Amino acid sequence: MNKAGTKAELSRPAPEAEPLVATVATRPPTAATEVIAPQPLRSEPDPARKSTLPRPPPPPEAMPDQLEKGRYPRPVQDWLEAQVALARLALSPGSIDGLPGPQTRAALRAFQSSRSLTPSGELDAATRAALVLDAPLYTNVVVSTEDLARLQPLSPSWLGKSRQSALEYESILELLAEKSQSHPNLIRRLNSAVEWSSVSPQTPITVPWVNGVVPSEKAAFVHIRLAERTLQAFGSQSNLLAHFPCSIAKRMEKRPVGELHVVVLIPNPNYTFDPELFPESAEARTLTNKLVIPPGPNNPVGIAWIGLDRAGYGIHGTPSPEQVGRTESHGCFRLANWNAACLLQLAWVGMPVFVDP
After folding, report:
1. Smallest Cα–Cα separation from 29: which of 166, 144, 186?
2. Spatial separation of the C-alpha atoms in residues 87 and 81, rounded to whole Å
3. How many other β-carbons are positioned within 10 Å of the β-carbon of residue 150?
4. Residue 94 and residue 84: Cα distance in Å, rounded?
5. Which residues, given as ranges, of the chain have pLDDT below 70?
6. What is the CB neighbour count within 10 angstroms for residue 204?
7. 34, 142, 304, 350: most buried by Cβ count inside 10 Å?
8. What is the DSSP string of 123-183?
9. Angle between helices 102-114 and 79-88 (to 10 degrees)
């Protein structure tokens, strides 16, 4: 799967490219030179809203055999169940894969701290008792003609990307993995009989049931810990609302430390590729104009842009969620698309963002 690369490369597995100066828009441009000025979506937090961790939405109806009376809620039994339970609370373990990796343990420590448990990162007895499944672990989704119609191959070049109608998902596996906040390998394991190169409409696919949580209040502030590569949002009582893995800048001098503030929030941003900022790119050296890259989940800044009051810096999504926290950016703070979308709902213009070394 070919995605945007670094300044020097345009293909995986290198980390995706990222703007030093980002231009974003709320809809696709009608021409390559059109840029729409971003408009703020939020103004201030609502202190009257209840300060509680978000709860998952009602159980799905796709697997009624799992909805036996008294079966839920129950304590988690293994790491896969722990990952799903954490994700339902907006405490992201990264891409759900059933493995106790460092991002899962970091999310578990955040949960343990929020419940006044020893932050060990282990599924001990006290943690299992506190971390529960409120609904079935899996659900079935049915592939639709609309799902298949939106798929597009991703051009390997910046010029090619600028000419696409959108930077959509390349495969149904990628779409389903991202929608369920899961690693593609897990989706493959759960659906071993599926031939992914020829999925037809009405094909049922089993995925972890996560769904997007609805924030119960606006965040009062965000705290980014560079050393831990985590981003956490807190409520008005300093209560934890969300925890996400985060990619940070590779170069120390590109890592802003101290207090920043949100200046704009944009869903589905476009991206301006400025060839002057990529002198090491062979393609960039052949271009004389900036290119406007259309929105979509495979846009270099993903499906959300949260601009900060330092020129060119922001918090945004990514086309490579499995690499978040494991690769480094050019300066911005990078989240999985689903986590960036959640943070977009929590954030507001003027919100403080505290960055620790």
Report:
1. 166
2. 10
3. 15
4. 10
5. 1-70, 212, 249-254, 327-331
6. 11
7. 304
8. --HHHHHHSEESS-SEEEEE--HHHHHT--PPPSSHHHHHTSS----SSHHHHHHHHTTB-
9. 60
> 281-330: per-residue pLDDT in tens?
999 999 999 999 999 999 999 999 999 999 889 999 999 999 998 766 65
What is the token pair recorded at 247?
A: 């990619």
CA 71, 77, 83 angle in degrees (round to 5)?
Answer: 105
Q: What are phi and psi of 155, to 5 degrees?
A: -65, 140
Q: Hey, what amino acid is at 13? A: P
Beta bridge partners of 316: 305, 334
| Residues 6+ away with beta carbon under 8 Å from 42 | 218, 265, 347, 348, 349, 351
Torsion over CA: 314, 317, 323, 325 (sign): positive
DSSP 204: E
Cα(3)–Cα(301) distance, integer angstroms: 12
Sign of CA dihedral 262, 263, 267, 269: negative
Provide the H-helix boundaries in the chain: 79-88, 102-114, 125-130, 145-149, 158-162, 172-179, 184-190, 337-346
Question: In whole angstroms, how far apart are CA 326 and each of 43, 245, 246?
Answer: 33, 9, 9
For the segment 232-261, what is each residue's pLDDT rounded down to a tens digit? 999 999 999 999 999 986 666 667 889 999
- The residues, any chain, with a CB within 8 Å of residue 155's CB and separated by 6 or more, are 161, 163, 164
Residues 306 and 266: their CA atoms lie apart, in Å, by 6
Bond prior to 13 in cis (omega within 30° of 0): yes
**116-121-123 Cα angle (round to 5):** 90
Q: What's this model's pTM, rounded to 2 decimal places? A: 0.81
Residue type, 169: Y
